[in-house]
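Dear H.,

Thanks for agreeing to be a second pair of eyes. The structure we're designing against is below in token form, covering all 251 positions.
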């Protein structure tokens, strides 16, 4: 067994075991009720990794499509996790939440329109025409996710999202993975299959390992998802926005 194969096995086994243990802890503590989308996301990528490992050697042709289709679907599910994070963080500010989630949905439909209109222009040659399609979609999703995370962390203290919260840990782990994934997809789109060994077999699994480790650490600590007592002084500004939006929406 080569060094690369040993590293790949570790990068698969470690997050899979952490994911299973984290899901068990979330089930025991009832966190799946507060974070249903993230729970589904973590469960899906854990099952995806296990099934992928079983298919890799036994059914390589089927694994090829399973990997690329699953890669695109998990990216979409990650976008749903960000939506859940915004919904939880803005829960105490109903009017801001209403406008914010409306803008979130609008951004998603704009993204879909951009992907549809620029599909042919960004099409590249690959082994299978399905791969450029997924890469285009995933690149667009990662760019949107990166922008949403920038907004979230910029207003984190004002919204009462401190580093102790489950939501902060989930957002931080996913943000790390999204940033790396954005670089990986860009490398794969630009360099083609030559980037597979480095990008998809090392960088992406390593970033995912770090993300799962962050999630596990926050979930295992047992801190509350939200805590109004920890809100920063800037909360008054958010409340002013919330009241102003409430008056505007009531007109």
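And this is the sequence the design step returned. I haven't edited it by hand at all.
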């Amino acid at each position: 067994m080569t060094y690369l194969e040993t590293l790949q096995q570790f990068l698969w086994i470690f997050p899979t075991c952490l994911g299973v243990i984290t899901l068990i802890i979330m089930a025991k503590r009832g966190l799946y009720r507060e974070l249903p989308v993230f729970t589904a996301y973590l469960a899906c990528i854990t099952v995806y990794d296990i099934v992928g490992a079983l298919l890799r050697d036994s059914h390589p042709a089927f694994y090829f499509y399973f990997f690329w289709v699953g890669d695109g679907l998990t990216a979409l599910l990650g976008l749903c996790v960000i939506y859940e994070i915004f919904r939880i963080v803005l829960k105490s500010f109903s009017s801001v939440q209403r406008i914010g989630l409306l803008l979130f949905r609008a951004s998603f439909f704009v993204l879909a329109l951009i992907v549809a209109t620029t599909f042919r222009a960004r099409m590249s040659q690959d082994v299978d025409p399905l791969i450029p399609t997924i890469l285009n979609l995933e690149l667009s999703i990662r760019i949107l996710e990166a922008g949403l995370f920038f907004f979230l962390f910029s207003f984190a203290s004002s919204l009462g999202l401190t580093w102790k919260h489950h939501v902060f840990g989930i957002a931080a782990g996913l943000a790390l993975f999204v940033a790396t994934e954005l670089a990986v997809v860009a490398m794969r789109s630009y360099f083609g299959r030559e980037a597979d060994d480095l990008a998809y077999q090392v960088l992406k699994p390593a970033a995912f390992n770090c993300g799962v480790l962050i999630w596990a650490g926050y979930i295992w600590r047992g801190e509350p998802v939200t805590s109004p007592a920890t809100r920063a002084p800037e909360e008054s500004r958010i409340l002013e926005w919330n009241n102003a939006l409430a008056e505007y929406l009531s007109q």
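Two observations from my side: DSSP finds nine helices and no strands in the chain. The domain at 3-250 is CATH 1.20.1070 (Rhopdopsin 7-helix transmembrane proteins).

Warmly,
E.
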